[in-house]
């Protein structure tokens, strides 16, 4: 006697009944009966799967046909769904953006910290008054901190997200825009990403006495219109161009039965005779119909090409013969091969990760340009190399998760495309998780990027946009490192040259506003994507920044010495001169480092030009009026402006060998 209880009260070993339309309440093994279950919520696969005695069904799947008895094997967090949820919870990927911010901050702290300590020791040794020493320490501290760096990364990601949204790519995490720049391996799901996620008739093998149209017409009579079965829908669509054969009227239709693996139709032909049509698995149809001796070879040949094979038999009710074989497949998207080639040209290797069979996966991989080499699911390990394999078939959620981690351990920045609950752990673990347009809510929640259009076009655009954003951030970061190193060194040289601090804390705060924050306009500058994955190499950037900072220090020191020794300016006027020199020099630096080639190779964006003009205008107005500083004559400001412009041309000649030597570009 059956008892209705809550699914939360189920325990392993309980017997459950799975009628048509039921939602499977727990992972279970079929004991008797046969069902077809829709697992699209779990796997993203649109085609229902057969479950016979001994087969496993999973919690959350839907019984679309048949009925069965099953024994519960797992509940709650131990189910297929529950294990996926637990993996999502523990999945963590190292962020290249966070590593970049931490790296530049750490390197600046080390370099500038040593210089700052030496400045304070020198000031104490020269008996600098305690109040002046405190002000000097505060100025050095302000000069060292990269105040606008985190905000600039966020602003750049926000601009990238806006552009991506226009192309149907939505970011659930802003950092995903920057992670795409470094991606060098893309793990792509097969169904719905590389393929159309819609079964189509790929081939028809007609037996002697029948032709292609007749086979399709017969199969259409034995296909349902009501339940939206994807196999029946594909057959009826292909049969629209075929005549309905000799049949004129349908007497009886028996839907597909998972226990017999066949569907039947009884029709009346034009002569008024009853004809029986049976459609289903070849093994089932061959038991009730006369079959040619070479039919099995045809089935194996079609199945070997990755097709799903449906047999069709026809005849009088008591005597049937095989009419033909229909091969169905989920064909590749028309743009998949081109987009995979585009990614390959950008240095991103695409591998297929699917729960489908190895034969089907290899067939699709060959059509879209993914290199052969199918990795058995039991070979996924920490020593895995994508150079040896291009296809990973029959992969379960834990293995997808493990595959992503294995690739990350080998130094790869991994992107993962997926659509089902089973993909969620890998989507969360990957640096850039990409949920396709048909993805389940769980997959979208785990991903950092959600496509609103099918296919990989959005991924290609995201990689290009990410690399453009990376170039802008590289310009800002390199510009900031040069300025921070130069300013701290300049404070040290100025102290030795003049005997007092050449900048006050107030001037330093003003410089942060006019230089650091206005330089955030570089996130809107024109830039070109790199041809290969873009990664942060902070030791190289820091070393190149120190080198250029020393050259820029030469310019600033020369101007300060000119004001001290030639113009004989007083301490306050020297502070104004130092402030204006650093600001004008910083503007020259922006135009030098924004281009990897010559500074005039491309036109700056309007925002960069506007912020530069605003910076120069504000500083000049303050220096001329004597606001917050001692005034300077306009003639001197004009000379400083021309000197900074001339220095930009000199620094542009020095930049290229320095960036090449330290491999910054």
Automatic annotation (TrEMBL):
It is found in: Membrane. Pfam families: E1-E2_ATPase, Hydrolase. GO terms for cellular component: membrane. One of its GO terms (molecular function) is P-type ion transporter activity. Residues 2-88 form the P-type ATPase A domain. It is a multi-pass membrane protein. Coiled coil: none annotated. The chain crosses the membrane at residues 108-127, 133-159, 574-593, 605-626, 632-651. Keywords: ATP-binding, Membrane, Nucleotide-binding, Phosphoprotein, Translocase, Transmembrane, Transmembrane helix. Belongs to the cation transport ATPase (P-type) (TC 3.A.3) family. Type IIIA subfamily. This is Divalent cation transporter.
